[in-house]
Amino acid sequence: MTEQLHEKHEQFTATPEVEEKAPQKAEQMSPTEELAPVAELSKNAEEIAVAGHELPTHEQSSGGDTSTLVSKELHDLTWNRALTRIRKRLPLPEKALSKAIHQPVVDAVSRVGAKTVARPSGVLTGGICAFAGSTFFLYMAKHYGFAYNYLMFALFFVGGFVIGLILELLMTVLRRKKA
Question: What predicted TM-score, i.e. pTM, was given to this entire model?
Answer without folding.
Answer: 0.40
